[in-house]
Amino acid sequence: MTTTIIVEGMTCGHCEQTVEEALEEVSGVTDVTVDRESEQASVDGEANVTALVEAVEDAGYTAYA
Questions:
Q1: Is 51 exposed, middle or buried (0-12, 13-18, 19+ CB in 10 A)?
Q2: DSSP state string for the chain
Q3: Among the four residues 13, 18, 41, 60, which has the most C-beta atoms within 10 Å?
Q4: Which PROSITE patterns did the record assign (predicted)?
């Protein structure tokens, strides 16, 4: 299953990497693609959507499912 999360506040490649690493730590995630231009993160796996949003917010960004 692929889940798309809207991520606001990313301004550079380091931001993308930070969000990607935060999402990869969530249980059930198998793959992550982050694109700051579209303000989206695509997450593959069986992770809980609430956990994904919380991981992004804990990394310092605003997220919506």
A1: middle
A2: -EEEEEEE---SHHHHHHHHHHHHTSTTEEEEEEETTTTEEEEEES--HHHHHHHHHHTT-EEE-
A3: 41
A4: HMA_2
Please check whether residue 10 is in contact with residue 61, taking contact to mean a CB–CB distance below 8 angstroms: yes
Residue with tokens 């931001």: 15
The mean per-residue pLDDT over the stretch 52-59 comes to 98
Q: What's the pLDDT at 14?
A: 97
End-to-end Cα separation, the chain, in angstroms: 14
Residue 29 pLDDT: 98
In CATH, 2-64 is 3.30.70.100: yes
